[in-house]
Specification:
The protein is α+β, with helices and mostly antiparallel strands and 296 residues long. The chain is built from 8 helices and 14 strands. Strands 6, 7, 8, 9, 10 and 11 form a 6-stranded antiparallel beta sheet that branches. The longest helix is centred in the C-terminal third of the chain and has 23 residues. The protein is globular. The termini are far apart.
Length: 296
């Protein structure tokens, strides 16, 4: 970024191939939407401004993903198969979906750094330890058509721009550059969409000089999503930055654990929980009599 502590007036870019070639682009507003790997904190300090603090809750989730060839005529009674984790004891999760080229994409995950291995035989052994056998039974007879790839950057991060005493005019941050959530909960795109709506409203009111007000509005909108993901991850024992839970949240945790366990063999319940966690449906639906009856 170019400018000073009071204002940002543009960005200075370096060519990706010719590192000596630089270009300055002037702008009335610079929006950092560069994701969880953002370098904005360094940029702010370089122009004499304070960097935001970061709230981090990291349960050590790691993924491994590969593809498998399906035989002609292959059929299943599902389009997507999801086996969820359940703190504090069930550290494993699995995801299967049919994709292009008549292939199956398979993802395994493990919390507290109990990550799935990247060797096929060990990957299958990991899948066999899931609380429900459908995942293993689906991929065990199939031929792998890709190497297994790992992903480990899954910590919940909330950059607290809302607490800065001063924000430079001409600069704001949105999306994962502010609030990056554990991907297991499927809330990242929705949260980024909410960020865009806050930005739209702020721009329509022509408040470009009050960037601090924007970050405060954004914080109020995305904080519930961060709390939901971070407190769920805090249910595991070895969590960095664990958030404490009140009495009601502990009771809800026990209720949710029972629902998730039941969802391993109940596709209707699994879909209902997915819609709530993805913010498609209201959390109030957790207490619908239909939900309660599933636990009787």
């Amino acid at each position: 970024m170019v400018g000073g502590a009071a204002a940002v007036t543009g960005v200075q870019c370096t060519h990706s191939q010719n590192k000596r070639e630089q270009k300055t682009i002037s702008a009335d507003l610079v929006v950092d939407a560069s994701g969880r790997s953002t370098n904005a904190a360094d940029w702010l300090q370089q122009i004499g401004h304070s960097a935001p603090s970061v709230d981090v809750v990291n349960a050590g989730l790691g993924y491994a993903t590969g593809r498998y060839q399906l035989p002609d005529g292959w059929q299943a009674d599902w389009k997507v198969l999801l086996i969820g984790h359940a703190p504090p004891h069930n550290h494993r999760l699995g995801y299967l979906a049919k994709v292009e080229n008549n292939e199956l994409i398979a993802t395994l995950g493990g919390y507290e750094n109990r990550c799935p291995p990247l060797e096929q035989k060990a990957f299958l052994a990991f899948a066999q330890q899931l609380p429900e056998a459908s995942f293993y039974n689906a991929i065990e007879p199939l031929t792998p058509v890709s190497p297994l790839k790992a992903y480990r950057s899954t910590a919940n991060k909330l950059r607290r721009y809302d607490t800065l005493k001063q924000m430079p005019i001409g600069f704001i941050a949105i999306g994962d550059a502010v609030c990056a959530l554990c991907p297991a909960y499927g809330q990242g795109l929705t949260t980024s969409g909410l960020s865009a709506l806050v930005l739209q409203d702020w721009l329509s009111k022509n408040e470009l000089t009050d960037t601090r007000a924007f970050q405060k509005k954004l914080f109020k909108k995305i904080k519930p999503s961060f709390d939901m993901a971070a407190k769920s991850d805090s249910g595991f024992v070895n969590v960095k930055g664990r958030l404490s839970k009140g009495r009601f949240e502990r009771l809800m945790g026990g209720y949710m654990q029972r629902l998730i366990t039941k969802s391993h063999t109940d596709s209707e319940l699994s879909l209902a929980i997915a819609k709530i966690s993805h913010m498609v449906d209201s959390p109030i639906k957790l207490f619908h009599p239909k939900m309660l009856l599933k636990l009787t």
